Amino acid sequence: PVLIAGIDKSRLKSIAKREAEAFAAARPKTKAALDADAGNYLDSVPMHWMKDWPMPFPMLVAKAEEARLTDIDGHEVDDFCLGDTGSMFGHSPAPVAQAIRKQARNGLTYMLPTEAALEAGRLLTKRFGDFKWQIATTATDANRFAIRVARAVTGKPKVLVFNGCYHGTVDDAMVELSDGQTITRPGLTGQVTDLTTLAACAEFNDLASVEAALKTGEIAAILTEPVMTNSCMVLPDPGFHDGLRKLATTYGALLIIDETHTISSGLGGYTGVHGLNPDIFVVGKCVAGGMPTAVWGLRPKLARDYIRYNAGRASGHSGMGTTLSANPMQFACLTANLAEVMTAKNYARMENGAERLYSGLKRVIEAHSAPWHVVRVGARVEFICAHGPLKNGTEAGKAHMPEVEATLHTSLLNRGCLIAPFHNMMLVSPVTKKRQIDRLIAAFDDILTELFA
Ligand code: PMP
């Protein structure tokens, strides 16, 4: 038989078909509602990523509470996707929901700060370290603005990213390696400029490839996640981050650390937990408890250099900032989330639950002798349908098994467990219950029993 990820392909196909049919059969109301009205949207979804779920059609969510979603057909599912990190602390954390209620009657946006903005600034510095902060609405924007500052201050043209990375819909980071050469990603829509004039690509965990790029003298900044989370998860080798920091300093490039996903690591993100020392710190998604908000901060010296760069230049149209950013609702949520949700106690809960999930999935994989592995970064757990550990983006790209992953996702969902699309990622929030974790492990076991029969 033909095997993919250790599974007989024809068996996989028949299970996939049965599970897709079971999903659809259980959701007549959803199907009818989508058939009636989804056509108003481009390709029938309000945001095209919603097409990337592996089910025959998306769920229509009626209710979200803690780490649970209910769809309009009445199916309750345990949510381990949590909005792909936006809701990592659970849906509508109570302090954030309360802050929203309070701000709701006091204006939603005025392009002026509030006292809560000052409080948020204090909390950001306390939580993430000595940076001069700016507020954006998405992590994409925060990264884009960080890159702009890096180019301004260094006068160099390129950003160095890692093969297989994702930092949002930031054009400058949309390159990859092909036969060792940086190329523009072929999937990019309507791309008309040659991105290799703006970016270079190196391999994660390969300091020699980083140094080779830096030696050109063209690199304004290295932009990286502490752990590669956007293909199959790749952990940094010991010494890799130290090496990056040293190389950046040696060659006069800035180090931008994008914590948008690795904020799962613990208090202060991976940077806080592992003592990284970025020049620019970026985090988005869950930082305000799910209210669209991102923050980026510059080290004080860099902030001074940037202010100096601006002195005497024509002002206006800096290419940074958006009209609704730094609005009072964001600050109400940011303050509530930083002070009352992103706490040591909650992170300890997440860590415990994620360790339970990690070891449970590992046990199941071993019991079935599946050629797979599991990786964890704090509250973030991922099973990978290939041997590990993975070393870099090239290996991570090859470790994707789309057919297997799609079948697993739908099968898990039919057993009441939602995991993130695009990868096999699961988040454990502070309100995720032990029994939800155990149900996911049992469902995973159930499916593997069939797949590897
Ligand atoms: N940085 C990282 C590491 C991400 O994974 C993402 C999105 N998955 C972003 C930035 C961009 O976030 P957003 O889509 O909210 O702009």
Task: Kindly describe this structure.
The chain is of the alpha/beta class and 453 residues long. It folds into 2 domains: 3-79 and 344-451, Aspartate Aminotransferase, domain 1 (Alpha-Beta Complex), CATH 3.90.1150.10; 94-341, Aspartate Aminotransferase, domain 2 (3-Layer(aba) Sandwich), CATH 3.40.640.10. Helix content is 40%, strand content 16%. It has 14 helices and 18 strands. It has helices spanning 9-25, 28-37, 94-104, 115-128, 139-154, 207-214, 240-250, 269-274, 300-310, 328-341, 344-367, 393-398, 402-414, 434-451, and strands at 3-4, 7-8, 61-65, 68-71, 76-79, 132-136, 158-162, 175-178, 181-184, 199-202, 219-224, 254-258, 280-283, 294-298, 373-377, 380-384, 417-418, 425-427. Strands 6-14-13-12-11-7-10 form a 7-stranded mixed β-sheet, sandwiched between helices. Strands 3-4-5-17 form a 4-stranded mixed β-sheet. Helix 8 (269-274) links the parallel strand 12 (254-258) and strand 13. Helix 6 (207-214) runs parallel beside helix 7 (240-250) and helix 11 (344-367) runs parallel beside helix 14. The protein is globular, with a radius of gyration of 22 Å. It starts with a strand and ends with a helix. The mean pLDDT is 97.
